[in-house]
Design a protein that fits this description.
Blueprint (H helix, E strand, L loop, with lengths): L1 H26 L20 E3 L2 E7 L16 E3 L5 E2 L7 E2 L26 E2 L3 H7 L5 E5 L3 E6 L5 E5 L3 E2 L5 E2 L4 E9 L6 E8 L6 E7 L3 E2 L2 E4 L1
Antiparallel strand pairs: 1-2, 2-16, 3-4, 3-15, 4-5, 6-16, 7-8, 8-9, 10-11, 12-13, 13-14
C-alpha cells in the first residue's frame, strides 16, 4: 500500500513539472514566434495578367486595403474621394461619421493621393478597362454573381463581382444585379463625370465606355502600378 502511494506521488510530481515546462515555454520564452495573419495589402496580392494588364484578384475594401477573398464585395467609393462606403442599404462610412458628399466639383483625374488602391497598385486607366472587355482578345463568361474575363492566348482569368452601387443621393441600389467599377479618368473637362465599366447579371456585353457623375459610389479593382 505504502509503495503504491509513493508511486502515485512520483507520477503526479512528474506531470506537474511537465505542465509547468510547457506553460513556461509557450508563454515566457522570448524566442517563441506567434503566427500573425497578415492584413490583406499590396504585397500579398500577385495579380493576373489579362490582355497585357495585370489586375488584382480582389476588390478594394477600406482605403488602401484589399478584401480578404476574391469573392468579397468590398466597399464603394465616390470619384476622387478617400471615404469608403458599405455596399448595403445602411449608409455606413469608413472611417465612421463621414457625411455623404453631394457637392459637384472639378477634377481632371482621380488624383494619386486619393487613390484607394494599396501600395504597388493603382486605379485602371480608361484604356485598361476597355482592354479587359476587348472581345477579340478576351472571353467573357458569367459564373453566378461574377463576370469572368479570360485571356484568349494565356487562358488566365480574373473575375469581377456584382456589387451594386450608390447613386448621387447616397441610396444603395441594384445589389446583386449590377457591377460598376471606376477608372481613374474623367469623361471630359467640366462634365463632372468619370469613366467606368458597368455590367448586369447574365449580360455578357458590359458597357465599357460608360460615364457617370462623380457623386455616385462604385467599386474599385486595381491594376499593377
Amino acid at each position: 500500500m505504502k509503495k503504491t502511494l509513493l508511486l502515485c506521488i512520483a507520477a503526479m510530481t512528474m506531470c506537474a513539472a511537465a505542465l509547468y515546462s510547457c506553460d513556461k515555454g509557450n508563454g515566457e520564452d522570448p524566442g517563441t514566434e506567434i503566427p500573425v495573419t497578415p492584413t490583406p495589402g499590396g504585397d500579398e496580392e500577385q495579380g493576373v495578367e489579362v490582355n497585357g494588364v495585370v489586375w488584382s484578384t480582389r476588390n478594394v475594401d477600406t482605403f488602401r486595403k484589399f478584401v480578404e477573398k476574391p469573392t468579397d464585395i468590398g466597399k464603394l467609393y465616390q470619384f476622387n474621394r478617400t471615404t469608403a462606403w458599405a455596399a448595403e442599404a445602411a449608409l455606413i462610412s469608413y472611417p465612421e461619421g463621414v457625411k455623404w458628399d453631394e457637392n459637384m466639383y472639378e477634377a481632371t483625374e482621380w488624383s494619386p493621393e486619393n487613390d484607394p488602391c494599396p501600395e504597388g497598385w493603382r486605379l485602371p486607366l480608361f484604356d485598361e478597362l476597355r482592354a479587359l472587355g476587348d472581345r477579340t482578345k478576351v472571353a467573357l463568361k458569367w459564373d453566378g454573381g461574377r463576370l469572368t474575363f479570360t485571356d484568349n492566348e494565356t487562358k488566365k482569368s480574373v473575375f469581377l463581382v456584382v456589387t451594386g452601387m450608390r447613386i448621387s443621393s447616397s441610396q444603395f441600389v441594384e445589389g446583386g444585379k449590377y457591377g460598376c467599377y471606376w477608372s481613374s479618368e474623367v469623361a471630359g473637362a467640366g462634365t463632372g463625370n468619370g469613366y467606368h465599366i458597368r455590367f448586369r447579371t447574365g449580360d455578357n456585353m458590359p458597357e465599357m465606355t460608360y460615364s457617370s457623375t462623380f457623386r455616385n459610389a462604385y467599386s474599385v479593382r486595381c491594376v499593377r502600378d
